[in-house]
Amino acid sequence: MELKHSIEIKTSPEKIWAFFVNLEQNYTTWHPEDHVSFKWIKGKPWEEGSAFYAEQYAKGKLTKFKGTVCEVIPNRKIVFKFSFPISLISPKIEWLIEPKGSNSVFTAITHARAGVFFGKIFKKHWKNSKELHDKHTGEEGENLKKILESEN
Description:
Blueprint: E1 2-9, H1 13-21, H2 23-30, E2 35-42, E3 51-58, E4 61-73, E5 77-82, H3 86-89, E6 92-100, E7 103-111, H4 116-121, H5 123-151
Antiparallel strand pairs: 1-7, 2-3, 3-4, 4-5, 5-6, 6-7
């Protein structure tokens, strides 16, 4: 199952990419209410095999997680995965940047396991997680739009 959010931004793919290359500095600005910290713990920003550590609030609870970059196409695509136990529920995240005339469309896709096993065990949790994802990812998109459009 995919949870997806897209937003059109009046900026170039290169400016969106630059925002994410500097995520250590931009993380808390991107979502001030939830994002606490982000740092690279191995490799360079957004290179395949690089690893990161992040902290953010989810439903009022501080969540700490690590992740690894799986695939990168500069100015177009970032794919990363979280470490265990988050990887059990969400095997990967994709961020897509697509040019659209003089604008760009940023799409965040969370891949989630939705098989029978997970459906039965996490049914209530899944509904709450989907609502949390839609709210959080929507706010990230709107914030990214405000930040980058104010720079133009």
